[in-house]
Amino acid sequence: MLDPISIDYDALNMASLIPMIIMVLGGLAILVIDLIKEDLSKSFYVMISELFILLSLGAAFGYHGGERGFFDAILIDGIAKLGEGIILIASALFIPLALTSKRFHEFSYPEFFALFLFMIAGFIFMVTTDNLILIFVGLETSSLALYTLIAMHNRQKSFEAAVKYFTMGALAAGFFVFAILIFYGLTGSVELHKIKEVLIANNFQPMAGVLAGVVFIIASLGFKLSMVPFQTWVPDVYEGASAALAGYMSIVPKIAGFVVAMRLFEIFVHADVTWVKHILWIVVVVTMTATNIMALVQESVKRMLAYSSISHAGFVMAAILIGTTQANSALFLYWILFTFTNLGAFTMLWVSRHKKKGIWHSRYDHPYEKFSGMVKFMPVNAVIMGMFMLSLAGVPPFSLFWGKLYLMSSAVNSGYIVLAIIMAINSAISVYYYLKLIVYMFLREPQKVDTTIYMKNASTPLKTIIGFAAFMTLMATLLVNPLLELITNYVKASGF
């Protein structure tokens, strides 16, 4: 007779799973409520979603248990908490964007909000584990939900965007599975801390096998982080998605990808594996530079911001190449500041979303011409949008200037002088396409159109989020030092 299986509940440590469990329960609760009572107001589902997100945020930062959980598959360290914090705060800012004054198809379905919470659960799984299988589960959970959310915008462009994202995502998932297979074959484990021990003990041999694993990992994460040459889907997907969801996609999936990349490449960077550093160096420089050049020739503000977000991701990826505590701290500082500024910029596009076709451009909803002379009839909007552009360009004293400053300082302090110069040059190049929009808003004559379009979807919640983003962009100078100190403490606690 077989002995009964005994479970060590201390090793199970269910408390480490609470943030993910809350998100899953929230999504299920929304579906059950819809079964019981149909046609409830979208405001109700927004409130329910916000409640579960805030509960999950409280559980994440209120957790004081062991670092390991769920039989050592879950890892709750400082990096995980920072990742969870950015994911949940950005999500809490996104959800009220459903409360537009005009009706949009996707927000009439409770399934939209349920899928959104399931997606967050996937992102949290990605940042709170060093187990490659669980990272893959989180990656696919979040990606499948996101494909559907894009398609629910119910436009031909949205269906096209969802199919492109799904196709590229399936390819990236295949690459990630191949990487898992290779590293398991080389080390006999799917847990990164054990993979690290075996690779170091074997002096990263056989090199061919390790190289293949690294290449597949870079390809799969390159898709999630929009690294060149895996960025081709981004402008079309952003164009097809709603401006609000495009803004969200430029922030949250990328921070989840950064945390995974940080855990993976820390194995090679800290061991000073030169050829891996060379590969990362090339990827970082090409991503920053190529997408900056592509952004220069865009006719649509939305597509310009899409290429801009890729360039920022390449900029931040430099921190993973550098690999010091200062660089890793600068990564999180940069992305927190970027969250408010970029979400604010996309929300400005979202409030002006309209259903009339071909007013300014036969293809794009947000061409530069749409903003011509905006200062003369929407001066507050023009000033706020101009501030977001200056911040994204890294102009002092706005928020992202400090993020770029700390990140380039970490490069210089680690001896990456050439990389720091390239980062500075790319920042200078980006000024052109950000100033291009400012020139249209402040120096061009307005076109004769219905000016109510510019605030078509404006509602009190949307105005509040724009105001909050503008405040954080402008007043970041006062918050940078305490925020950096807090981030550095979390990073050091994780051993990075």
In a nutshell, what does this entry contain?
The chain has 496 residues and is mainly α. Helix content is 72%, strand content 1%. It has one domain (10-493).
Shape: globular
Strand content: under 5%
Helix coverage percent: over 70%
Low-confidence stretches: none
Order of helices and strands: HHHEEHHHHHHHHHHHHHHHHH
Number of helices: 20
Global structural class: mainly alpha
Q: Name the assembly state.
A: single chain
User: Sheet bearing the most strands, described?
Assistant: 2 strands, antiparallel
N- to C-terminal separation?
48 Å
- How many extended strands? 2
Radius of gyration: 22 Å
Q: How would you describe this protein?
A:
By secondary structure, the chain is an all-alpha fold. The chain has one domain (10-493). 72% of the residues lie in helices and 1% in strands. The chain has 20 helices and two strands. The chain has a two-stranded antiparallel sheet. A hairpin with a 4-residue loop joins strand 1 and strand 2. The longest helix has 34 residues, at 460-493. The radius of gyration is 22 Å and the shape is globular. The N and C termini lie far apart (48 Å). The model has no long low-confidence stretch (mean pLDDT 88).
Secondary structure elements and their pairing?
Elements: H1 9-12, H2 18-36, H3 42-62, E1 68-69, E2 74-75, H4 78-94, H5 110-127, H6 132-151, H7 156-187, H8 192-201, H9 207-225, H10 234-240, H11 243-249, H12 252-269, H13 274-296, H14 301-322, H15 325-351, H16 374-377, H17 379-393, H18 399-413, H19 417-443, H20 460-493
Antiparallel strand pairs: 1-2
Helix pairs in contact: 2-3, 2-5, 3-4, 3-5, 4-5, 4-12, 4-15, 4-20, 5-6, 5-12, 6-7, 7-8, 7-9, 7-10, 10-14, 11-15, 12-14, 13-14, 13-19, 14-15, 14-18, 14-19, 15-17, 15-18, 15-20, 17-19, 17-20, 18-19
